[in-house]
Amino acid sequence: MSLLALSDITIRYSRLTAVRDVSFSMAEGEILFITGPNGAGKSSLLRAIAGVTPVAGGRIDLAGQEITSQAPENIARLGFSMVPEGREVFGSLTIEENLLIGTGMHANNRGWRTRAASELEAVYATFPMLKERRNGQAGLLSGGQQQMLVIGRALMTNPKLIAIDEPSLGLAPNITDQVYERLIVLRAQRGLTLLIVEQSSARAMMVGGRMILMRGGQIVLDGDARTLGNGEAIQAAYFGYEDH
Amino acid sequence: MLQILFDALSLGSLYALGALGIALIFGVMRLVNFAHGDVIAFCVFALLWPSTDAMAIVFAGQLPWYLLVPFVLLCGAGLSVLCEIVVFRRFRKANPATMMITSFALGFVIRYFLLMLYSSRPKSISLLPTLSQPVEIFGARLPLLQLITIIATMAILIGLTLFLRQTRFGLEMRAAAENFSMARMLGVRANRVIMGAFALSGALAGAIALIFGSQTGTADIQMGASIMLMAFIATVIGGLGSLGGAVLAGFLLGAASVVMQVMLPVDARPFRDAFVYGAVILVLLFRPQGLIAARGTKERV
Amino acid sequence: MSAVVSETPLAGVVKAAKKPARFSLARRTIITPILLSLLLIAITLITVMTGSRPFNQTVIDVLVRVIFVVGLYIFIGNSGVLSFGHVGFACLGAYATAWLTINPIMKSSALPGLPEWLLQTRLPYWEAAVLAALFAGVAALIFGRVLMRLSGIAASIATFAVLAMINTIYSNWDSVTGGTSSVVGIPIIRTIWPYLIGAVVAIFIAWAHAISRSGLALRAARDEPIAASASGVDIPKERLVAFVVSGAVMGLGGALMAHSIGVVTPDTFYLSLTFTTLSMLVVGGMGSLSGGVIGVVLLSALIQALRWLEAGVPIGESTFAMPKGLQEIALGIIMIVILALRPSGLMGNREVTLPRRNRG
Amino acid sequence: MAYKMRIAMTALAVLSVAYPALADDDKIVVGFATAESGFMEAYDKPAQEAAMIRIQEINAAGGLLGKQIEVVKADTKSDRAEGAKAGLSVLDGGADLVVVSCDYDFGSPAALAAEDAGQVSFFLCAESIKAGIQGVGPHSFSASVLAPVQGATMAEWAFKEKGAKDFYRLLDTWTVYNKGICDGFDWMMPKLEAQGAKLVGEDTFKNEDASIAAQITRIKSLPKEPDAIMLCTMMPGAVSAIKQLRAAGINSMILNGSGVDGSYWLSAVPDLSNFFVPVQGSIYGDDPSVDVNKFNATYKEKTGADPSSQYVYPGYVMIDVWAKAVERAGTTKADAVVAELEKMKDEPTLFGTRTFTPELHHQNKARYLIVETKAGKPGVVGNWTISEPVPMEALLK
């Protein structure tokens, strides 16, 4: 059974169709890259799964339950955790507070802090830098540190699936490398399923796994990242035919 | 001098509490709640038995203070949450102008409801009469109430800070105020946070009603309006969405008002508010995002 | 072809505003102001036929509000910035017409602080109304120069601060405005036609502004602020143009309102009028001229109907009357319901036009 | 669109039926264009009740000119634009006398409508000079006494009877009424200063100010607490101001206008003392005139409550003087009635005398009872009539 399944998803912003009839599914433990040029509808798709962007048509299932048009907080409870584009750390909160938000939904008020403490330790073990600056304001972190923080924050919800929107955005290549390194380790440790959106397919080819290429709101290619990545087809698919 | 400080603090306290009530709701919902002033008026009138006679029939107002205070706070919180459930819930996705007008229409309904039950004549109530005695501190003779207003406001501010910093609910609320959809994606329940914000805001309205009611001794349909306006302005120049900014701006507005009343020559004093509003425009021109711009607050498109 | 966000339609719109294109735009859209004017003319004709003086006064009131709401629309609708300050310009217009039309003898005793030439002036009301509109427009220009740099809620608050300043000054500058006391002796005009003309003129001004280059650019900036400034639209400048035009229309409305009741006080032009007019605009549909006009007409009709219920309606043998005060409560609830069902107002962003044509 | 238009028109057409135009010369009609709802209702209704009592008395005694007085009403909704409509609508109802709201600002639109139609209008209890010839026209009157008379009365009485020397003036700039009280005080002060009184300071506030702490601080910083504070304000801000003055420990005499009369608010300032109000008649059952006390009983019988303040009385006076003028003129024709009214000099009424002249349709001098509140109990302690009428210059200030 697939962990996540989308069928015929269409997303519209007033008169503009951002995503049209997109279907795919992901198995548990899979790593899937969605790539494509700006405006291909990748982020819209992620946001629709997370429940923050309404879908105009189609159906989304997560872990055997339909989640189409569910509230984001309920989708999060089913094990979907989102790291949005631009990271969206809570800048005025401390790093530890950023991490703690996600633990709220699994605990009652009394047991919250103790329960959160063990989760925190696990995240701090992966990202020791966060522990050092735990009481510092999240808004003051560098881009790379913020990326670590939001991944840590997503982990705190104890998810089955983490979706990450452009983790390399605005980061130096060596920092991006570090981020991916941690992701791979985490995936191995926790048996996470990863859904990663990137504009370029280079990273997907490096990491491996499955890749979907979107353009103009539709899926144009779907296959193994490494085999797809070397072909001429991807060039044509990425840039499309010249208009006019 | 000391007296002026106390005057400024006590007036600022009212504005700060009002601004907090508005900023809390704005933070989680981007709603400028114009009904807030009417919630304040409602809390005062809740102490009276509905009647259109000139003589007020004091009802809950006779309770001893340890029952009276929670009663009024609960009234405010209750009405505020009711507004959320019945009305504002349906407007979560509406644009700010629509929400603003809705809140205004709702305030209008509350006001005329009170008017129907109590008539337009201002009613007198003796709320906590022992507080009207003067006391002597550091050589200044102050109304005890002024002192209590300041102390109560400080206590409320400290309590609220602790609540927001130390509890899970407070944490969720701060996160939601900064980035609501992100907080939801982390499992923060929207309804709970918004209702919590409305309840807190309503309880603050109750607190203002208590202070204002015992200070003026009057229950008047219009009484919330002037505080509400100042509070609204304080919220904006404080930096919308920033609770600390709202409080700071509330105190600044109170101070500006008192200082101008003291400094201006007698002929210019009636124009005091024009100077205060002029200062508001200046602040906005130099800091359009407010004194304390809420850090990381994303403009929602 | 899949629709992909690439280029905003803005550049096209601005380019389209060149001469020949604009002419066709005018021809295409002129039906809206014509239909709206016909609606008002029809209401006026019915009123005149009934011959009832109170009803005549009621409709005069409606027409004055149409002017106000259209004035608000010119700024708020086109710029998307909510203004709480426009009623202040109505106040300026009302006092300006008072200064210009009151009998000089009365004026010199009631308002001795006015300059000599003004004390001696006495103009017919329509000249005074035009001058009042210009005066309000100039004031809007002065305030706008400072304020139009702001946007969003900061701009809303700043405009409110302007209203509060105007109110405080006019309430206390006794020798020139008579302070909080009513200024009396303004000639009362009880025929309905001048108000109808005022409302129709306001509608056509709003239309002309909307299809002007400035109006088009401003609306484009409202919808796509980043793209607009990227393609060279000077947002503060275009906003200022709208602010001045709308300020002048508000001034005209204020002047006519003064002539409809014969007295002015500063608090006639304060919060309650601000919210009444804003509500009418938002309920009708903030983004459309038709929305504004229809909002006024429908809400006014609703208010009248509720008042009529309140006064008592004979049903068979008995009379049904709503308790006093229920009218306002009902009005508030109906407004909330309308907004809940149609969050962007009754008309949304659409304009009334003839069928078969494109709505938009 | 067409559909919407049709709805609107149907609604409008239906509405127009609601205003029947009738004029009948066999009847005498008094039209009340007053507030039956909203903010002004609390002020208009009591005076209107009193007017109704006088109308019933007249009708019971055989009517006016042998005809029964009929009443038509239209609600102003406490709104100026609605006021104009209400005025027109009672005129369409055939009103021979148009009674308008207590306050000049709210009453004038209806009064101006009456003036246009050449009918007599009477303000229920407006106390501004504009409520009459100066602000409406030659057919307009007010039944009450000018606000400056109240300020002048209190100043002179406090100086002469209570030996007050140091005065402080605290003005609430909210309404013309408030400014009027202080204008009268300002006119009287120089005369008293010539005899040894002194104005030791002045300040302003706004009725809706949440706190007047800064103003109080200014009073407290005086070298010596003033003997009397002239407080020119009205409800609801008055209660707040008085409460804050006393809470700050200022025990000076507080002198007021009639606007704060009534015991309904006294509970807000427990044990209030040294507090003085001028009234045209006492609602506290201790009026020196038996007839006033009898009227109070009638009022209670008709409305179920005691008069809430002295502003009930002008309503009665209004119908009284107008009916006398109609009786003397033998007609309800406006010009004849106005001529008779203007002949009245010290015309006795239940609540003091009334004088109208072709220059002033209002009282610039009147006998006032002084009510002192002592330990929370109000009672009449004397009466005072200012030594000379307040002159036109001071009134028109």
From TrEMBL, chain A:
<dbReference type="GO" id="GO:0015658">
    <property type="term" value="F:branched-chain amino acid transmembrane transporter activity"/>
</dbReference>
<feature type="domain" description="ABC transporter">
    <location>
        <begin position="4"/>
        <end position="241"/>
    </location>
</feature>
<keyword id="KW-0547">Nucleotide-binding</keyword>
<protein>
    <submittedName>
        <fullName>ABC transporter ATP-binding protein</fullName>
    </submittedName>
</protein>
<dbReference type="InterPro" id="IPR003593">
    <property type="entry name" value="AAA+_ATPase"/>
</dbReference>
<dbReference type="GO" id="GO:0016887">
    <property type="term" value="F:ATP hydrolysis activity"/>
</dbReference>
<dbReference type="InterPro" id="IPR027417">
    <property type="entry name" value="P-loop_NTPase"/>
</dbReference>
<dbReference type="InterPro" id="IPR003439">
    <property type="entry name" value="ABC_transporter-like_ATP-bd"/>
</dbReference>
<keyword id="KW-0813">Transport</keyword>
<dbReference type="GO" id="GO:0015807">
    <property type="term" value="P:L-amino acid transport"/>
</dbReference>
<dbReference type="Pfam" id="PF00005">
    <property type="entry name" value="ABC_tran"/>
</dbReference>
<comment type="similarity">
    <text>Belongs to the ABC transporter superfamily.</text>
</comment>
UniProtKB/TrEMBL annotation, chain B:
<dbReference type="Pfam" id="PF02653">
    <property type="entry name" value="BPD_transp_2"/>
</dbReference>
<feature type="transmembrane region" description="Helical">
    <location>
        <begin position="274"/>
        <end position="294"/>
    </location>
</feature>
<feature type="transmembrane region" description="Helical">
    <location>
        <begin position="225"/>
        <end position="253"/>
    </location>
</feature>
<feature type="transmembrane region" description="Helical">
    <location>
        <begin position="12"/>
        <end position="32"/>
    </location>
</feature>
<dbReference type="GO" id="GO:0005886">
    <property type="term" value="C:plasma membrane"/>
</dbReference>
<feature type="transmembrane region" description="Helical">
    <location>
        <begin position="99"/>
        <end position="118"/>
    </location>
</feature>
<dbReference type="InterPro" id="IPR001851">
    <property type="entry name" value="ABC_transp_permease"/>
</dbReference>
<keyword id="KW-0472">Membrane</keyword>
<keyword id="KW-1133">Transmembrane helix</keyword>
<feature type="transmembrane region" description="Helical">
    <location>
        <begin position="39"/>
        <end position="59"/>
    </location>
</feature>
<dbReference type="GO" id="GO:0006865">
    <property type="term" value="P:amino acid transport"/>
</dbReference>
<keyword id="KW-0813">Transport</keyword>
UniProtKB/TrEMBL annotation, chain C:
<feature type="transmembrane region" description="Helical">
    <location>
        <begin position="192"/>
        <end position="212"/>
    </location>
</feature>
<feature type="transmembrane region" description="Helical">
    <location>
        <begin position="125"/>
        <end position="143"/>
    </location>
</feature>
<dbReference type="GO" id="GO:0015658">
    <property type="term" value="F:branched-chain amino acid transmembrane transporter activity"/>
</dbReference>
<dbReference type="GO" id="GO:0005886">
    <property type="term" value="C:plasma membrane"/>
</dbReference>
<dbReference type="InterPro" id="IPR001851">
    <property type="entry name" value="ABC_transp_permease"/>
</dbReference>
<feature type="transmembrane region" description="Helical">
    <location>
        <begin position="150"/>
        <end position="172"/>
    </location>
</feature>
<feature type="transmembrane region" description="Helical">
    <location>
        <begin position="29"/>
        <end position="49"/>
    </location>
</feature>
<keyword id="KW-0472">Membrane</keyword>
<keyword id="KW-1133">Transmembrane helix</keyword>
<protein>
    <submittedName>
        <fullName>Branched-chain amino acid ABC transporter permease</fullName>
    </submittedName>
</protein>
<feature type="transmembrane region" description="Helical">
    <location>
        <begin position="55"/>
        <end position="75"/>
    </location>
</feature>
<dbReference type="Pfam" id="PF02653">
    <property type="entry name" value="BPD_transp_2"/>
</dbReference>
Automatic annotation (TrEMBL), chain D:
<keyword id="KW-0029">Amino-acid transport</keyword>
<dbReference type="InterPro" id="IPR028082">
    <property type="entry name" value="Peripla_BP_I"/>
</dbReference>
<comment type="similarity">
    <text>Belongs to the leucine-binding protein family.</text>
</comment>
<feature type="signal peptide">
    <location>
        <begin position="1"/>
        <end position="23"/>
    </location>
</feature>
<protein>
    <submittedName>
        <fullName>ABC transporter substrate-binding protein</fullName>
    </submittedName>
</protein>
<feature type="domain" description="Leucine-binding protein">
    <location>
        <begin position="28"/>
        <end position="376"/>
    </location>
</feature>
<dbReference type="GO" id="GO:0006865">
    <property type="term" value="P:amino acid transport"/>
</dbReference>
<dbReference type="InterPro" id="IPR051010">
    <property type="entry name" value="BCAA_transport"/>
</dbReference>
<dbReference type="Pfam" id="PF13458">
    <property type="entry name" value="Peripla_BP_6"/>
</dbReference>
<keyword id="KW-0732">Signal</keyword>
<dbReference type="InterPro" id="IPR028081">
    <property type="entry name" value="Leu-bd"/>
</dbReference>
<keyword id="KW-0813">Transport</keyword>
